[in-house]
Amino acid sequence: MRQLSKTETIILLVGGLLMVVGAGGSMFLQSWAAYIFAPGALMFAAMQMRQTYEGNNFTVRRLRRILLTSDVLFLLAGLLMLANQSNFFGIDLLLYIKYVHNNWIVVLLVAAILQLYASHRIANELEKEAKKR
């Protein structure tokens, strides 16, 4: 895996921290939480997308695709969190309640589970690959 520079690592960590603060703030019904979560998700996803894998291990490549999927889901959760503030999609109230209202929580949960799984497995696969050398 390509290592991030020091600046990129700081951006990744700050983005993750903003995501945690934004998700935690929304639990206490804070109106500012979505405006903290969304930029954090953007920073986190952008830096994680900059990490690349140049090797030939099929398993690591598959796990990287899972990580990229979770990054897209983090961004979608941020968008849904912002949409939860008001119906800016301009859809019918019943459709809004059915498809948008608080559904960012489900998307965030799926993204977090994928992120945990893929990160753990990538670390194990890279460790195995390093031992073979």
Which SSEs are present, and which pair or pack?
Layout: H1 6-27, H2 33-50, H3 58-85, H4 93-99, H5 104-132
Helix pairs in contact: 1-2, 2-3, 3-5
The chain-level structural class is mainly alpha
Globular, elongated, flat, extended or rod-shaped: what is the shape? elongated
Distance from first to last alpha carbon: 15 Å
Radius of gyration (Å):
17 Å
Strand/helix succession = HHHHH
β content, as a range?
under 5%
| Count of helical stretches | 5
For the residues shown, what is the average pLDDT?
Answer: 89
Reported for the largest beta sheet, the result is: none
Description:
This protein is mainly alpha-helical. It is 78% helix and 0% strand. The protein has 5 helices and no strands. The protein has helices spanning 6-27, 33-50, 58-85, 93-99, 104-132. α1 runs antiparallel to α2, α2 packs antiparallel against α3 (58-85) and α3 (58-85) packs antiparallel against α5 (104-132). 26% of the residues are buried.
Quick synopsis:
The protein contains five helices and no strands. Helix content is 78%, strand content 0%.
